[in-house]
Inverse folding.
């Protein structure tokens, strides 16, 4: 089932690479959005940082250049 | 006699901003989303620079899915465009809402930029603290609803409905019908 936030998810405007975008969409938005950490936190009413990826990692942490 | 701008002007202008906003910022119009991003920017102190962000995204994608996944993924049919002047647009957008409404009230309305009308005064009184308190409480409820619904009246009602998104169509139907029902109920109770 497709994620109801797929078309409005604030994460996607940060993507400029279509291939990378589609990887995340295919695995999370289209396949199993219940496992998306962004969806989980949103459903629980928790804050969802724009840099939070669906697998729970925060964009930039790995490279040490986080916000 | 009270002068108002013809209603269809409102539709044209709202439609124009709904089309222009994504072209300028690279994201769909949604007032609650703009507030959300502004508050997060204030809280987290800015975002990654674009180059660093893309490098970080590539690293995370490769770490999560491996190089084959990224290499074989098909192109998205409607990928969002990069935001050419996103921060500046958002900077102007929020005060523009207030200034535009005030300008409209002064030029085409009754010139009462700070009045919410006789019905509001009749219900909440003319004291400033009562009116302001009611508006604040309404704002909190709207914020909670927008958060839970993944968007507000502009995000779902304008952008989402225009795109034919099922979630937005359902959400808009729910909040409009609820608003009409609550207004009718308050009107009946207040008589």
């Amino acid at each position: 089932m497709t994620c109801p936030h797929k078309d409005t998810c604030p994460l996607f405007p940060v993507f400029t690479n279509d291939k990378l975008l589609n990887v995340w969409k295919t695995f999370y938005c289209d396949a199993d959005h219940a496992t998306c950490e962004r969806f989980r936190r949103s459903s629980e009413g928790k804050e969802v940082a724009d840099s939070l990826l669906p697998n729970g990692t925060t964009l930039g942490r790995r490279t040490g250049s986080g916000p | 006699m009270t002068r108002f701008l013809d209603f269809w002007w409102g539709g044209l202008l709202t439609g124009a901003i709904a089309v222009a906003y994504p072209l300028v910022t690279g994201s769909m119009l949604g007032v609650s989303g703009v507030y959300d991003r502004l508050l997060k920017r204030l809280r987290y102190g800015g975002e990654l620079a674009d180059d660093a962000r893309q490098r970080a995204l590539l690293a995370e994608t490769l770490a999560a899915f491996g190089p084959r996944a990224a290499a074989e993924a098909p192109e998205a049919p409607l990928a969002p465009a990069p935001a050419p002047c996103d921060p500046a647009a958002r900077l102007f957008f929020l005060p523009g809402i207030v200034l535009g409404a005030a300008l409209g009230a002064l030029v085409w309305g009754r010139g009462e930029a700070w009045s919410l009308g006789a019905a509001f005064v009749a219900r909440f009184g003319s004291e400033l603290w009562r009116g302001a308190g009611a508006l604040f409480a309404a704002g909190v409820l709207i914020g909670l609803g927008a958060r839970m619904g993944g968007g507000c009246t502009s995000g779902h009602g304008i952008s989402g409905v225009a795109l034919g998104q099922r979630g937005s169509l359902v959400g808009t139907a729910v909040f409009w019908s609820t608003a009409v029902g609550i207004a009718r109920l308050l009107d009946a109770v207040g008589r």
Remarks:
- Chain B has a mean pLDDT of 76.
- The radius of gyration of chain B is 21 Å.
- Chain B touches chain A through 49 residues (CB under 8 Å).
- Residues 61 and 154 of chain B are 32 Å apart (CA to CA).
